[in-house]
Please model this.
Amino acid sequence: MGKKAGSKKLKRTMSPSFWQIERKTKRFVTKPSSGSHPSKLSIPLTVLIRDILKLTKTYSETKIIIRDGQVKVDSRIRKDPNYPVGLMDVVEIIKTDSVYRLVPSKNMLTPIIIPANEKDVKLCKIINKISIDKDNFQYSFHDGRTMQINSTTNVPVGSTLKIELPSQKVEKIIELKTNNLVVLTGGQNKGLIGTIKDIKKSSFSRPTMIDIIADNRTIEVKQELVMAIGEKTSEITLQGDE
Model:
């Protein structure tokens, strides 16, 4: 009988650079399962816990902890050792009572320790919306989740919703507009936090571009590389201790 799926292993030399793993000690590493984030923009739970956070030493030890229900992602227990975690996901290690959020950085994604009162809060960027009927829109978010919202609350694509986990109750809508605070999620300046100065509408040959003031300079980036995080201040912790 033939295989029903591809290999669950990945050569370490071919893994994304932001995984920050040793590439010459062993030949293979586990790759992310299919899930909420694209494989090129996510980290398997096993790699996160063992290689990046260094909370365990072996795959077997890590797998036992995960399958024992000791790990939550976005306030839900995940028992798949290769479950993919990505941008803004909240990872809670119950055994050590520690909570991390994956935030954008120069290395693409970096886990930082966050306060306990933020473990049930997440920012989700709207990447698409469709009309279900005259009373409802369905919104799609960067982390794969979808949500229906009454059409009286018509939220533009590109906006960010601050939601409560795991209920998905909307606590706040943060639009991409002048003077709001944003973080760059891609490009050479990823991880940089700044304020929107101007939004240039798209044309036939040019996508929507946003001018951002950060580090005392103005940066022009595509809208798809920007995520709104607050008005005057960020709604969540995005920078860890140095």
Q: What stands out?
A: The two ends are 53 Å apart (CA to CA). The longest strand covers residues 121-133. The chain has two helices and 19 strands. The chain has a mean pLDDT of 87.
